[in-house]
Amino acid sequence: MPVLAAVAPGQNPVHYGLAAGSPIPLHAGAAGKAILAHCDGDVIGKLSLDALTPETTTQRDDLEHDLALVRERGWAEGEGERIFDAFGIAAPFFEGPHIAGSVTLTIPRDRKGEIDPARLGDALTRSAAQITRLLTL
């Protein structure tokens, strides 16, 4: 299971955060789905789709739909799937042809109305592309 490598806190007095080294479930939340969308199909088939919150996708067909959307637009979104009160956006980065991780922005779910998810998703996608270029040098 992938783990959270680094954390950069936001500027608001109340923020969401996990410690570096925290496991990232591939089927729940933006960070994991951004990665899972680019894994081999057998990885998805072997996953146990355990519910972490009432919002966690536990049906393979629903997960496959979410992953197709990630591949289409280039970034993932998760709302309350891993941590009930969190909203996240993530973009995958690669090392050569292989998925290497994701760049993720997570905020408290009640602040979602303050952001433009598509704009932030596109910005994360550009950042992830820069990381990919650095890893592929």
UniProtKB/TrEMBL annotation:
<dbReference type="InterPro" id="IPR029016">
    <property type="entry name" value="GAF-like_dom_sf"/>
</dbReference>
<protein>
    <submittedName>
        <fullName>IclR family transcriptional regulator C-terminal domain-containing protein</fullName>
    </submittedName>
</protein>
<dbReference type="Pfam" id="PF01614">
    <property type="entry name" value="IclR_C"/>
</dbReference>
<dbReference type="InterPro" id="IPR050707">
    <property type="entry name" value="HTH_MetabolicPath_Reg"/>
</dbReference>
<feature type="domain" description="IclR-ED">
    <location>
        <begin position="1"/>
        <end position="137"/>
    </location>
</feature>
<dbReference type="InterPro" id="IPR014757">
    <property type="entry name" value="Tscrpt_reg_IclR_C"/>
</dbReference>
